[in-house]
Amino acid sequence: MEAAHAHAPGHDDHAHHPSGIMRWIQTTNHKDIGTLYLWFSFTMFMVGGVLALMLRVELFQPGLQVWRPEFFNQLTTMHGLIMVFGAIMPAFVGFANWQIPLMIGAPDMAFARMNNWSFWLLPPAALLLVISFFVPGGATAAGWTIYAPLSTQMGPGMDLAIFALHIMGASSIMGSINIVTTILNMRAPGMTLMKMPLFVWTWLITAYLLIAVMPVLAGAITMILTDRHFGTNFFNAAGGGDPVMFQHIFWFFGHPEVYILILPAFGIVSQIIPTFARKPLFGYVSMVYATSSIAILSFIVWAHHMFTTGMPATAQLFFMYATMLIAVPTGVKVFNWIATMWKGSMTFETPMLFSIGFVFVFSMGGFTGLVLAITPVDIQLQDTYYVVAHFHYVLVAGSLFAIFAGAYYWLPKWTGHMYNEVLGKWHFWLSMVFFNITFFPMHFTGLAGMPRRVPDYALQFADFNMISTVGAFGFGLAQLVFLWAVLKCISGGEKAAAQAWEGAEGLEWTVPSPAPYHTFETPPAVK
Amino acid sequence: MVAVPQTNLTTLRKLLVVALMMFGFGFALVPFYQKICEVTGINNLLKADQVSNTQIDTARWLTVEFDANLRSELPWTFRPVEKSVRFHPGELMQVTFELRNDSKRAVTGQAIPSYAPQLAAGYFKKLECFCFTQQTLQPGEVKLMPVVFVIERGLPQDVNTVTLSYTFFEVEGKVRNPG
Q: Does pLDDT of B61 surpass 60?
């Protein structure tokens, strides 16, 4: 953060802000806040990554070697919570803060002070999660889905996790309200909705999803809290409650949540592919409609996460078909990305590599999702490593690769320097190869029946797990290359032009690189 | 600081209302869920079943075994008076469970039934059961509680033995006079 500070776009003559740490605590500037979000996200990504490697160490061999099973469960839970709420979501909000005002020609976010708040709520929440490892009974071990009745029984670590989720939820809702208001009210004259860059579109829809489902999660965890401490019986069977109901409420939040984690990624990739294919995005309008369809459908598919809870066959069929329907708009998107590349003058700089990697590997994750949507297959594969493989293909190779792509794509705009292409390419190829070494074998172990969230496993899974662990360490170390590339880019490098990429289009490329502290104080004219 | 324009405040207010409504919606899902379970009959643990056709299939014999468990460190003794019964599908049966409070305080509990094999649950109709209500026992009190049930004739032919298992959970915060 120190390096970011010293070279952040503070060279602007009109910038009057406190210096040192107070600049970052008091800042209401969307670029500063974007930077804070991105560094926070990277820090949590490292924390969550270390937890993942601790898991893989235990799974390197069958039997119990390193951790007690209870602690292993804490690791899986915290890895999930930290990666979803601490790494991926804040990263996208960081992109939104930096890019949305620049892309729609607005001077800043709509509510600058609230923007500061929504960021500074996050570090205390993260701290609550991390210190929960050290309270009696340790961190919550109920899985990131915190299913009742596990979550109604655990020690104080569970309470800390609930508070952390409440705070992070409040932060997300504030951030989303900010984003929606900025996009709806502060576009430059002439920037009609259907002229907005696709990244802005996907974030508009994501923000609506967040406003709709984050409060539902807040409700669900409040119920857990009152069940734990105030004698209510929402999920307590003995008192007339029902633990299955928790799953319904949770997944009513949870399924839109997984699209919250991927839609901004679609947006980033839709910015990058046209740039490096040097062609306008194929099917812009269909992209907007596809994104909206995915968002709407996300509200009626939640029970595909719970096919094994005992549902009437009609309900199973409904949720199965509704889930499969989502493949249609997603297919439209993948088709459009490929059609954009078709006969384009493509070059393969790091952002483009990550984007193509995204399209390729995300599609694989999408297909395993379709397999899991088939009820009878899901009943077999529920809670196996096949599911783990599926959601890491869409979340790591999907969301995370898109975040890397976006970071390399916009780093010249943020820092004023081009990043080192050699480092970027190393980062991509190492990530791509080790990602697949880590997660591809999980398809096989899952199909063969290895259950997830268990520290020990049957001997026949030993070889594949060994491969996964080796891959995981390779993948983890590859991310240090990313850190190196970013720090190097911040501290110097080839000077970036205002339009850093030859084929790039959009308002953000009309301001100098690095972007001045204040931009678009007079709105630009959009033709 | 520049004042926030009125249009933005209006949008803020609308979106906050949406967020608050969705928070309420989360809680509204609770009665909604219970209603759906009630209407579709998925989860009617606490209600007496209706039996329509009570013709007895005398050609077939069934065995029902009983199992009684306690949870949450309930200071009770809980057992079925009959370990198992043998009867015909469609026949009305009555069995008794015995419950004793071994502690020096009044305790309230709720019994939750479960069945093995699971698919028998759909054919196992309880007309009267102590599990339909919470049971409160005074210190040292003993209760004999009947269960009246029918197993419907539609029970698949390969099922000959059904286990009915009850687990009593303590309903905390209901009765608490320490001593």
A: yes
Other Cβ atoms closer than 10 A to A173: 26
* pLDDT score recorded for residue A4: 44
Distance (Å, whole) CA A483 – CA A368: 31
Which position has the token pair 């190869």? A433
Determine the pLDDT at residue B173. 60
User: Is residue B8 within 8 Å of A110, Cβ to Cβ?
Assistant: yes
Q: Does A238 sit within 8 Å of B171, measured CB to CB?
A: yes
- Cross-chain Cβ contact A242/B43 below 8 Å: yes
Specify the length of chain A in residues. Answer: 527
| Same-domain status, B130 and B101 | yes
Helical (H) or strand (E) element with A79: helix A69-81
Indicate the residue type of A511: V
Per-residue pLDDT tens over the stretch A465-514? 999 999 999 999 999 999 999 999 999 889 999 999 999 999 999 999 99
- List phi, psi (to 5°) of B94: -130, 130
Cross-chain Cβ contact B15/A112 below 8 Å: no
Whether the Cβ atoms of residue A146 and residue B40 lie closer than 8 Å to each other? no
Indicate the pLDDT class of residue B105, thresholds 50, 70 and 90. confident
Token pair listed for A15: 């910038």
CATH architecture of the region A2-509: Up-down Bundle (1.20)
The pLDDT-based confidence of B175 (bands split at 50, 70, 90) is very low
Q: Is the ipTM of this complex over 0.85?
A: yes
Could you report the per-residue pLDDT of B63-98, keeping only the tens digit for each?
A: 999 999 888 678 899 999 999 999 999 999 999 999
Using CA coordinates, name the residue in chain B closest to A179: B12
- Report chain A residues whose CB lies below 8 A from the CB of B38: none
Range of the domain at B110: 62-170
Domain ranges of chain A: 2-509
**CB B33 within 8 Å of CB A245:** yes
* Phi, psi values for residue B119, rounded to 5°: -70, -15
The minimal CB distance from B15 to the residues A112, A180, A186 is found for A180
Is B51 inside a domain boundary?
no
Q: Does B175 reach chain A within 8 Å, measured CB to CB? A: no
CB A32 within 8 A of CB A24: yes
Contact A111 B25 (CB under 8 A): no
Alpha carbon distance A107, A517 (integer Å): 10
- Find the CB nearest B29 among A28, A111, A252: A252
Predicted confidence at residue B179, as pLDDT, reads 32
Say if residue B74 is in the same domain as residue B162.
yes
A113 in contact with chain B, both atoms CB, cutoff 8 A = yes
Q: Are residues B91 and B124 in the same domain?
A: yes
Q: Is A313 on the interface with B (CB under 8 A)?
A: no
- Which segments within A336-418 are labelled E, that is strand? none
Q: Which residue stretches of chain A have pLDDT < 70?
A: 1-17, 238-239
Domain count of the fold of chain B: 2
Confidence of residue B46 (pLDDT cuts 50, 70, 90): confident
CA torsion sign for A102, A104, A106, A109 is negative
